[in-house]
Amino acid sequence: xxxxxxxxxxxxxxxxxxxxxxxxxxxxxxxxxxxxxxxxxxxxxxxxxxxxxxxxxxxxxxxxxxxxxxxxxxxxxxxxxxxxxxxxxxxxxxxxxxxxxxxxxxxxxxxxxxxxxxxxxxxxxxxxxxxxxxxxxxxxxxxxxxxxxxxxxxxxxxxxxxxxxxxxxxxxxxxxxxxxxxxxxxxxxxxxxxxxxxxxxxxxxx
Length: 206
What we know:
Blueprint: E1 22-31, E2 37-40, E3 47-50, E4 53-63, E5 75-78, E6 99-109, E7 112-119, H1 123-127, E8 137-140, E9 143-146, E10 154-159, H2 161-166, E11 177-182, H3 184-193
Antiparallel strand pairs: 1-4, 2-3, 4-5, 6-7, 6-11, 7-10, 8-9, 8-11
């Protein structure tokens, strides 16, 4: 065990991999941009501030027998949850998977790469906000992004080289599937706008 003020790695046993689990190893850690952490040099010693890295990409090293979309060697995106008193920079991501989408096109424009995705949701879900809006937000494989060219079942996102390097967007090609989480604020607003009686609405569709 490391004492306060010491730096290094703590070796821990590799966890057991369940049938629906994936075990990942961190690869590249980016600097945390949300806060500066304070360390104490012992219980009554001096303190100083330092920046620690949180956001990173990770490599899948083992998957359970029921996992279909990942295999050892794949990269996944990992980010620590924001504290409730933190400054929001982007949109609220809950970590749910609302549906999946297929990458149907890539285009390099002005140094960025535009990815086009196609997804499918029932009309009643789309009416309740399970959709994208122009210049709104969407979460793709855990990455918060801005929507471009939003249509009924397709949309685009623009990925800059830095994001492509530190996330698994660099591994994404045409035909691959991704996990989508639609913006929760759109869903809340849509429920209010259509005047649905919440007592008659299936909670799973809110």
